[in-house]
Amino acid sequence: MTLPEGLSRRTLLVKLGIAFNAAIAAVLAVPIVRYLMSPVIHERKGGYDAWVSLGNLEQFPPGQTRFATYRNPVVNPWDGTTGDIACWVRNVDGKSFQVFAINCAHLGCPVRWFPQSSLFLCPCHGGAYYQDGSRASGPPERGLFEYGYKLESGRLFIKAEEMPTPGSACKSKNSDIVREIKPCA
Ligand code: FES
Q1: The pLDDT of residue 165
Q2: Is-contact 72 84, C-beta < 8 A?
Q3: 183 falls in which pLDDT band (50, 70, 90)?
Q4: Which atom of ligand 1 is least distant from the CA of 104?
Q5: Cβ neighbours of residue 106 under 8 Å, at least 6 residues apart?
């Protein structure tokens, strides 16, 4: 192969190396930029602000606490079952409800409802919560996190927003939420 005049083999290889590295950098940059921009992209979609149905009210009899799941409104089609999020629904008296995040307020293990003792118990470190989600004992420093909810056309909807953490603001700004998310302890 004859090289263009004034272009040495060494210079050509250096240029090819730079072009190759630039192409690799561009390929790697796409997922990194998407990751960094994801909060903005999701916010634009309004996913976390979406009202998500947990189903008909008949699924949640008065005085009982039932397990429910909903689809994360900001998942991608390829997320599969990891996009299903569990929660506990308490029908207090047929008119008012409480919808609890399933994750323990200590380190996030899924809590389980035991109707025999009317307690939510955490399998990880023995955290316990009363039926209204308030802390009963163990390492958690506060009660279970709650979703805002509303009743509409015989269905229960929750505000599937990002759940609060002990370090962030916890009050929901939405005015049509029947029960506001409790402020952080
Ligand atoms: Fe529940 Fe630690 S994660 S008590």
Answers
A1: 53
A2: yes
A3: very low
A4: 1
A5: 122, 124, 125, 127, 138, 139, 140, 141
Is 122 near ligand 1, meaning CB less than 6 Å away?
yes
Ligand 1 centre distance from Cα of residue 121 (Å): 9
- Determine whether the shortest distance from the Cβ of 75 to ligand 1 is under 6 A: no
Beta bridge partners of 144: none
2-6 long-range CB contacts below 8 Å, 24 or more apart? none
Per-residue pLDDT tens over the stretch 44-76: 555 667 889 999 999 999 999 999 999 888 888
CATH architecture of 46-182: 3-layer Sandwich (2.102)
- Cβ–ligand 1 distance for 89 under 6 Å, the answer no
The answer, yes or no, to whether any atom of ligand 1 lies below 6 A from the CB of 107, is yes
Distance 11 CA to ligand 1 centre (A): 61
CA distances in angstroms from 34 to 39, 42, 45, 83, 89, listed in the order given: 9, 11, 14, 19, 35
Instruction: Give the predicted TM-score (pTM) of the model.
Output: 0.68
